[in-house]
Amino acid sequence: MLEQNQRDLLRKVAFAAVARAMGLRGALAPAIPEGSALLRPASVFVTWVKDGRARGRSGAAATASPLHILVEQHAVEALLHDPRVPPATAKELPRYTPQISVLSTFEEIYSPSDVTIGIHGVVAEKGKRWGVVLPQDAEGLNWDADRLLGQACLRAGLPEESWKAEGSVRLRRFTAETF
Fold first, then answer.
1. CA–CA distances in Å: residue 32 to residues 64, 69, 175
2. pTM of the entire structure?
3. Which distant-in-sequence residues (6+ apart) come within 8 Å of 27 by Cβ?
4. Is the pLDDT at 62 greater than 80, yes or no?
5. Domain match, 79 and 139 both
6. Backbone phi and psi for residue 155, each to the nearest 5 degrees, phi listed first
């Protein structure tokens, strides 16, 4: 669990990275204290929210890069380079809020009963393809575990039912600290 000051610092990291990428003046990256949890490797997703709606997301699962570096990279990717939405403008930037999800370590899934909706996210992998469903993605959608696993497969570019064929897709669960 991150402390509130670490969460606040990551939000500042996200905004500063985007402001620098947009060429805005005075957008300095905040200093990360020595020994901080923000210097440790992590898996993270950054989702930008505007007017209460998600509008761009980017992230990395199972990486050796420090958390604060990943937040910088994925904050920019999500807000300026997500191909699903047009890039944000400097004028719009104050209307955006970063939602940062720091993922736990991954655990193998052997059956749908290994997953709890709203608690677990899922990674589906086959070869170089992978798809991620964050825990908050399934909340309020009346999904069951089968649907969650299927959605992870779809996000990996695989058929929705492919998780059912034993050994064809690697499935892992995780929790996320989202703020």
1. 17, 10, 25
2. 0.91
3. 15, 16, 19, 20
4. no
5. no
6. -70, -20
